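Q: Convert this sequence to structure tokens.
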Amino acid sequence: MANRRTRTDSTEAATNAFRSVAQNSAEFVWPDQTVSQMVDAKKQAHAMRIAQQIWSSRAPQDWKDFDRTTISQLAITTVDLDELQTQISAEGYVVTKSNSKGNPTTARNPLLDPIVQLQNRQITLSRSLGLSGAPADPKTLANRAAQQKSTLAVVENLDDLLATPAKAML
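A:
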């Protein structure tokens, strides 16, 4: 009897695929050609741990080649942000400094500006990797809108006692 191929959409095939990914999850390789490693070895080790966590969140074949660069940048940004947040925790959001006359005055910590910049960069990089929520492409959004309109039409044809969303919100 000839060897029969197993179905790729079966539960067994999905389980085997999951096991092979779990067992053969590749280690993250830092893209030295596109992203320089951090000078401080301790920070680089921290960035590598973060990059590995991100990398292992998906099967290795699900990542594109350029994603290694973005993952590395996200890891570096996260390490820098963590360091600045540690500093601000020690110093406080408001610091005392001397004004132009030499008198002490309170002011917002100047580290807040780079923290905001790093947070924005972190969010942008996470979005580009698809790590921050469900992807919303135009086709998906159009399908959702059509589905919502058809559901609303059904609800409107039902009983008047049902609460319906305001039409301005659609």
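The chain is about 55% helix and 5% strand.
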